[in-house]
C-alpha cells in the first residue's frame, strides 16, 4: 500500500526562519511554497530525494491562526514533527481499505495537498499516536 515516505511535516512558528535553518544546516532546497486556506497553513516543501513513486520531502508548516490544526498543535506541544505522510498509488482506494480495518478517517474523501497532490488524514489515536497522511502524487510527479 505504501510506496514511500512522501514527507515529514514539521510545525513551526516562523516559516522563513525555519526554512533558513534547514537550508543552512542540511543543504536542502525549497521546491514549492503554498498557502492552503482549507488546512490553515502556510507551507514549504524541501526536496530530499526522488524515487519510483515520486519524491520525498520535509514539509515546514506555519499556522494561519491559533484555531487551526497546526496552531492548536503548537500551543499544546510546541514545535516539532506534526505528521508523517506516506505515498500511495490511489488515496481513495487506500481510504476504503484502511477505513475497513477500523481506523478513523479524518477525511472521508481526498483533499487538495502540496504540489497538486491528493491527501487524506488518519486519526493519530488509531495509528500509535502518529498523525498519518496519505498522499497521491499528481501524474507528473509519479
Ligand atoms: C492532535 N493530536 C495529535 C496531533 N494532533 N497526536 C499526534 N500528532 C498530531 N499532530 C492528539 C491530541 O494530543 C489529542 O490527544 C488527540 O489527538 C485529539 O486532539 P485534540 O487536540 O483534541 O483535537 P484537535 O481539534 O486538535 O484535532 C486533532 C486532529 C486535527 C488530528 C483531529 O488536527 C486534524 O484533523 N488534523 C488533520 C488536518 C491537519 O493536520 N492539517 C494540517 C496539515 P489527547 O491524548 O490529548 O486526547 S495540512 C498538510 O499537511 C497539507 C498542506 C499537505 O501535507 O499537503
Automatic annotation (TrEMBL):
Q: Which Gene3D superfamilies match?
A: 2,3-Dihydroxybiphenyl 1,2-Dioxygenase, domain 1
**Does Chaperone count among this protein's keywords?**
no
Q: Which GO terms describe its biological process?
A: L-methylmalonyl-CoA metabolic process
Question: Which UniProt keyword terms apply here?
Answer: Metal-binding
* Molecular function (Gene Ontology), one example: methylmalonyl-CoA epimerase activity
Query: SUPFAM superfamilies from the entry?
Result: Glyoxalase/Bleomycin resistance protein/Dihydroxybiphenyl dioxygenase
Family affiliation: Belongs to the methylmalonyl-CoA epimerase family.
Would you say which domain of life the source belongs to? Answer: Bacteria
The VOC domain is annotated at 4-137
Provide the protein name: Methylmalonyl-CoA epimerase
Amino acid at each position: 500500500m505504501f510506496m514511500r515516505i512522501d514527507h515529514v511535516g514539521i510545525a513551526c512558528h516562523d516559516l522563513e526562519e525555519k526554512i533558513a535553518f534547514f537550508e543552512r544546516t542540511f543543504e536542502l532546497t525549497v521546491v514549492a511554497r503554498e498557502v492552503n486556506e482549507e488546512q490553515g497553513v502556510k507551507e514549504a516543501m524541501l526536496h530530499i530525494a526522488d524515487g519510483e513513486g515520486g519524491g520525498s520531502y520535509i514539509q515546514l508548516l506555519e499556522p494561519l491562526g491559533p484555531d487551526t490544526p497546526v496552531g492548536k498543535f503548537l500551543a499544546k506541544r510546541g514545535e516539532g514533527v506534526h505528521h508523517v505522510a506516506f505515498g500511495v498509488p490511489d488515496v481513495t482506494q487506500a481510504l476504503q481499505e484502511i477505513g475497513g480495518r477500523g481506523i478513523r478517517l479524518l477525511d472521508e474523501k481526498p483533499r487538495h495537498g502540496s504540489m497538486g497532490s491528493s491527501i487524506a488524514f488518519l486519526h493519530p489515536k488509531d495509528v500509535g499516536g502518529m498523525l498519518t497522511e496519505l498522499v497521491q502524487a499528481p501524474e507528473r510527479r509519479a
